[in-house]
């Protein structure tokens, strides 16, 4: 139920902060449950640079913006509202939450679903950020097929570099691991790399070489250029969760060592009652289809929580009526 008070503050059953796959998945299931839903989205999807979404059954290769627009149209069909904007802060109020947007607008919510995703903190190598999502990649399942059989390099900057090299090796025979600033492989990892024919390149990387808007090679600090058509990096994942600080929710290190996330249970419920999270803000490794599924599950959990609250209130009101009737009958 959507309610507007005397001060003009509109309160929704659920405000979804972030309109990616997770947020829209949650909004869809909530809309189908006849909940009043507002989705607030800044329009900055993490996968915007990519040419297509992969691994999403029946939508493989679909452009990211097209997928989101289709999702927005679907949730609007069930009465959900989609607002372009960014939530700056949130605070707990009696019976729910008040959110303040960057432009000063305020909205109320009985429950919150936060699906703000994460920020990829990339290695500080010239060319990496400029080519990110095109021929500078991270996930073999999202983009590995597109660079199959090409000369690929893995830029080591964190603990997952060897793991990434092993995964990409099945996609190409021409693979090199650039040690750069990453940790040296263990003896066991060195043996694995050698057994699979993965060449290890010593020394730091100076930059990526680009010609006519195509990645052509990796330049080392000593000036040597090694031809490559794609480079794999392992970014650090930083959850977009600053707006949760006012609710007492802080990010914690993810068990994988890949960055930080907002902790939650299997359905997305956080340590703050009434606040759920879904997608990359809590699960850095979630692909688009997984994030959509997590949003659906969180949306169902939120609806069940609202139903439980409304049922308790209805029972209490019913008992009050019975008591009042009984009292009247005794007079």
Short précis:
This protein has 331 residues and is of the alpha/beta class. The chain is built from 7 helices and 20 strands. The strands form 5 sheets. Strands 1, 2, 3, 4, 5, 6, 7 and 20 form an 8-stranded mixed beta sheet that branches. Strands 9-16-10-11-12 form a 5-stranded parallel beta sheet. Strands 13-14-15 form a 3-stranded antiparallel beta sheet, with no helix packed on it.
What does this molecule look like?
There is one protein chain. The protein has 331 residues and is α/β, with parallel strands linked by helices. It has two domains: 3-120 and 236-320, FAD/NAD(P)-binding domain, CATH 3.50.50.60; 123-233, FAD/NAD(P)-binding domain (3-Layer(bba) Sandwich), CATH 3.50.50. The protein contains seven helices and 20 strands. Strands 1, 2, 3, 4, 5, 6, 7 and 20 form an eight-stranded mixed sheet that branches. Strands 9-16-10-11-12 form a five-stranded parallel sheet. Strand 1 and strand 2 form a beta hairpin. Helix 1 (21-32) runs parallel beside helix 2 (64-76) and helix 1 (21-32) runs parallel beside helix 7. The radius of gyration is 24 Å and the shape is elongated.
SSE layout and pairings?
Blueprint: E1 3-4, E2 10-17, H1 21-32, E3 37-41, H2 64-76, E4 81-84, E5 87-93, E6 96-101, E7 106-114, E8 118-121, H3 128-131, E9 136-137, H4 140-143, E10 152-155, H5 161-169, E11 175-178, H6 187-195, E12 199-201, E13 205-211, E14 214-220, E15 225-227, E16 230-233, E17 236-239, E18 252-253, E19 260-261, E20 275-277, H7 288-330
CATH architecture designation of the largest domain: 3-Layer(bba) Sandwich
Average pLDDT, rounded to a whole number, is: 95
Could you give a short account of the major beta sheet? 8 strands, mixed
The tally of helices reads 7
| Fraction in beta strands | 25-35%
Helices and strands, in N-to-C order?
EEHEHEEEEEHEHEHEHEEEEEEEEEH
Low-confidence stretches: none
Shape: elongated
Integer tally of domains: 2
Number of strands: 20
Rg (C-alpha, Å): 24 Å
Helix content estimate = 25-40%
CATH superfamily of the largest domain: FAD/NAD(P)-binding domain
**Structural class assignment:** alpha/beta
CATH class of the largest domain: Alpha Beta
**Distance between the amino and carboxyl termini:** 38 Å
* CATH fold name of the largest domain: FAD/NAD(P)-binding domain
